[in-house]
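Supplementary Note 3. Input sequence used for the single-chain structure prediction.
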Amino acid sequence: MADNTVPTKGNLLTTKKSLELSRVGYELLDRKRNILIREMMMLMDRATDIQDAIDSTYNAAYQSLQRANIMLGICDEISKTVPIDNNLAIDFRSVMGVEIPMVTLKETPPSLHYGINTTNASLDEAYLSFNRVKSLTAKLAEVENSVYRLADAIIKTQKRANALKNIMIPRFKETVKFITSALEEKDREEFSRLKVIKNKKNRE
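The predicted structure, written as C-alpha cells, is reproduced below.
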C-alpha cells in the first residue's frame, strides 16, 4: 500500500484515520468473539445436561415399554392411537447479530389415547416417558442448532479479526511510517534549500 500512496499530509491524515478505525474494529470483533464463545460454552453445558436427561428418560421409557410388551404383547397397534403433535413453533433471538433459534413445544397435559381396561401401568409409564423425551428433544434441537450457528459466527468473526490484526493494521502502520518519513525528508530538503538561499543572500 505504501508504494502506491502519494506522501501528502492529506493521505497521512486519511491513513491514520483508517488505522484508528481498524484498531477499533479489531477491538469490537474481539469483544464480539469473546461474547459468542461465552454464550456457546453455556449452551454446550446445557446441551450436555439435556442429553443426559434424554438418555436416562429413554432408558426408563424402553424398560417400561419392554415390560408392557411382555405383559400385553407387542404394543404396535396401541402406539398408533397417539396423535401427531403439531404444537412445535420456532422463533429467533439475536446474540451480537447472530440469529439464534428458540424452539417452543406447547405443553399440553398428557392424556391417554388408549383404553385403560386392556393396558397396564407399564404402558402408561412408557407413554409418559416418551412424551417427556419429546419435550427434551425440542430443547436439545434448539440448543444444538444455536451452538452450530454460534460456532460458525465465531469462525467468521475470528477470520475478520485476524485480517485486521495481521494484514490491515500492519499495512496502515507501514503506510503511515512511509508517508511520515517522506514528509520529514521533504521538510529537511526544504529547510536545506532555504538555508542555502539565505546564505547566498547574506554573501551578496
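The chain has a mean pLDDT of 86. The CA atoms of residues 116 and 124 lie 9 Å apart.
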